[in-house]
Amino acid sequence: MVITLSPDLTAALNDLARKQGVAPDILALNALRERFLAPALKIQPQDEWGRGLLAAASDCGISLSNEAVSSEGLYE
Residue 2: inside a domain, yes or no? Predict the structure, then answer.
């Protein structure tokens, strides 16, 4: 497969690759892997309720600290 990139996308890819210290083609391949190859589930649901819960959940990419979700932290 050959993908032709627009000049602006090429420039952005080259700039980010230089900042991260990797080759542009490696950066592009990693981005495609992250986007299109689903990671394996770390949690295996045991029943229909668990499967439904995982299907409804979304990864926000962050985890709040215990203090942030404590009753005192909610009102600050």
Answer: no
DSSP codes of every residue in 8-42: HHHHHHHHHHHHHTS-HHHHHHHHHHHHHSPPPPS
- The count of structural domains within the chain is 1
Tell me the residue range of the domain where 38 lies. Answer: 7-74
CA 3 – CA 24 distance, rounded (Å): 13
Q: Residues 10-55: pLDDT tens digits?
A: 999 999 999 999 999 999 998 988 888 866 667 778 899 988 887 8
Q: What is the pTM of this model?
A: 0.50
**Placement of tokens 């420039």 in the chain:** 11
